[in-house]
Amino acid sequence: MLEVRELEAWYGQAQALWGIDVDVADGEVVALVGPNGAGKSTLVQAVAGLHRSTRGTIAVDGVDVARVPAHRVGDHGVALVPEGRRVFARMTVHDNLVLGAYRRGARPGLAAGLERVHGLFPRLAERSSQLAGSLSGGEQQMLAIGRALLAQPRLLLMDEPSLGLAPVVVDEVFDAIRTINADGVSVLLVEQDVERALEVSARGYVLAEGRIVASGSAAELTGSALVRKSVLGL
Ligand code: ATP
C-alpha cells in the first residue's frame, strides 16, 4: 500500500535523505531502524505530508501523496503517531481523541473509533475527562496512538513509540501494535529498540546517514552483522 521511490529530502540546502525506496504491503508491520540522525523521522514525516521539501514519489495505494496538500494526506489513509507524543496537554483525553477524527471522512466513525480505542487502552476510558498533561508518559503515548487511530488510518506511521517509557508500558505499546495490525492496519514503525521492533515486524529497513543500507525479513536483519554493527553498535 505504500511505495516510496527515489525519495530525497532537504532541510534548506542540507540533504537528509538520498534515493530511499521503501515498501509496506497491505497488512504488514515494517520496522525502520538506524542510528540517531539517520533520517528516520524525516522519512515518516515526509510520508505523513509534514516534510514537503522532497523529490521522488510517495505512493499510497497508487496516489502520490507528496503531491497532495498536507492537510489532505490523511484522506488517503495515513496517520502519524509523532515522536514525543505531542498531545494537547491543556485539553482533556476525550478532546484529544476527538481531534484525531478531524478529517471529514473520519467523523462518522467517531463513536465506534472511541469504543475501539477505549477497548485497546482501558486507561484512556477511565481518564477520559482528565487533562492530557496530567497523564503519565505511557498514558500520553497511548493517547497519541489512540488519536491517530481515530483518523481511521490504513497505514499507521509510528515514530519512536517506546522512547522513555517504563518496560511494563513498553510491553503494552508493543501489544497494542500487534492488535492494531491484527485489525487490518499496516504499520511503519520507527524504533530505537531494534530487537523489539523486529519481533513485531515482518520486514525491516536499516537507515544510516540518509540512505537505506540494509533491508530484509526480520529474521535476516536480526542475524545480520551489519545491523548489529551499524544499529546496535555491537
Ligand atoms: P533521531 O533518532 O535522532 O530522531 P532520525 O533518524 O529520526 O534521528 P532525523 O531527525 O530525520 O533523524 O534527522 C535526519 C538529519 O536531518 C539529521 O542530520 C538532522 O540533523 C537533520 N535535521 C533534522 N531536523 C532538522 C531541522 N529541522 N533542520 C535542519 N536539519 C534537520
Automatic annotation (TrEMBL):
PANTHER family: HIGH-AFFINITY BRANCHED-CHAIN AMINO ACID TRANSPORT ATP-BINDING PROTEIN LIVF. It holds the Pfam family ABC_tran. Keywords: Amino-acid transport, ATP-binding, Nucleotide-binding, Transport. GO terms for biological process: L-amino acid transport. It comes from Jiangella mangrovi. CDD domains: ABC_TM1139_LivF_branched (cd03224). Residues 2-234 form the ABC transporter domain. This is Branched-chain amino acid transport system ATP-binding protein. It comes from the Bacteria. PROSITE patterns: ABC_TRANSPORTER_1 (PS00211), ABC_TRANSPORTER_2 (PS50893).
